Amino acid sequence: MTADITVTASGVVEALRGRLRGEVATPSDARYGELVAGFHLAFAHTPPVAVGPTGVDDVVAIVTLAREAGLPVTALGEGHGFHRGVSDGILVRTRGLRSVTVDPATNTARIGAGTKWQEVADAAAPFGLTPLSGSDAGVGAVGYVLGGGLGPLGRTYGYGADAVISFDVVTGDGRALTVDDQHHAELFWALRGGNHGLGIVTAMTVRLVPLDTVHGNAWYYAATDVEAVLRDWVRWCGGIPDTMNTYAHLVRMPDDPELPEPLRGQTLLELIHIYVGDESDGLELVEPLLRSAEPVFHEPGRVREDTMAPVTVADGGIYLDDLDDEAVDAILALAGPQHSYDDVPLVSVGLQRLGGALASPRTSSNAVTGRDAAYAFHVIGAEPDVIDTVITDQIRALHCCVDRLKSSGTIPNYIGKANEPGEVDRAWLPDVRRQLGRVREQYDPDGIFRDSHTN
């Protein structure tokens, strides 16, 4: 491989094919569609060239050629975190970098950039270990931690980014580096929560949690009980220990015969409780909430969601410093069960209790912000015809109605297509944002990276 050849934009495809072991595809190639397909179907990726590297040398060659040709580079894992379509430059699909190796002696896993969390969980389970993954095990592991990584065990063990020991990364100047607390520490700090514009991660090593059993339960409450139970849940959240993780979702269920009969076609409040510890202790903690109203359905064992197929959705999330009765009133006024689905086509209006281990990194500091926030507030709509109009407007209205409680920071993973423009840049506190800018200038001096990576 000769890195000193000047490559023009018109010749970059031929140059890539000459230097890469992995796939190189243009829109006229049969494999192009599979390489550019992402999780979100609300927009399409249409870059002039898509590549599927199979190793670090391929990634170095891609970055080197992109610099020489003056082309932007975007890395795509599973695509859950993308908010727009990619139409220019080189799209790097990381699926060919899929691998996972668990070391039970150190409770760690080495994970390739194309690996999904389900693959990590399956490899770790025989050793009584579990990763700090998200609620959807089909999400790409690397992109998840680069954007912070808020998961169902967060209050107990922290963000996914907090569990990273090291990254293997190709920087914008074409170097293949291993970064950790002792080597290129400023880049290691930035990659954990800094999300994009920092490099293409090819692998990472993370700590696993020695935990073979987690106790999860979901209870569903009828529309008539939503307001009372949600208020009780907010009050209850103020006194729970770090071992309890909990969500409240106002959900509109489809009229699907495969669903349990009490859920079909209903608007319900779904409370999910995930406890780390003795099951009886967890149920005792939840017992006061069970007195609020009679649930219409109980789903034991609920911890993570089933892996979702690609979907057409608009979503948006923010962090809140508090949640009070006025905020609950405002949320329910806009999206409560009194509204029909035709008027409010939102499938989920969700709250997650933060705090606990999320409030501070248990190892070295990193770029994750919003650690003082009390709740995460995330809204999803899935009607394709009104994604960019009614749904986006309603999600932004819900964010606006609790704006007085909005945290000054959040994590990039939580920001979706329906967030206000520029919300990603405002995700970090000003001092963190400035430091991220300095790191990007140091490791990507020509600014070739775009939104790398997404989970």
TrEMBL record:
Pfam families: FAD_binding_4. One of its GO terms (molecular function) is oxidoreductase activity. Its cofactor is FAD. PANTHER family: BINDING OXIDOREDUCTASE, PUTATIVE (AFU_ORTHOLOGUE AFUA_1G17690)-RELATED, FAD-BINDING PCMH-TYPE DOMAIN-CONTAINING PROTEIN. The keyword Glycoprotein does not apply. This is FAD-binding oxidoreductase. The keyword Magnesium does not apply. Residues 43-211 form the FAD-binding PCMH-type domain. InterPro entries: FAD-bd_PCMH, FAD-bd_PCMH-like_sf, FAD-bd_PCMH_sub1, FAD-bd_PCMH_sub2, FAD-linked_Oxidoreductase, Oxid_FAD_bind_N. It comes from the Bacteria. SUPFAM superfamilies: FAD-binding/transporter-associated domain-like (SSF56176). Belongs to the oxygen-dependent FAD-linked oxidoreductase family. Keywords: FAD, Flavoprotein, Oxidoreductase.
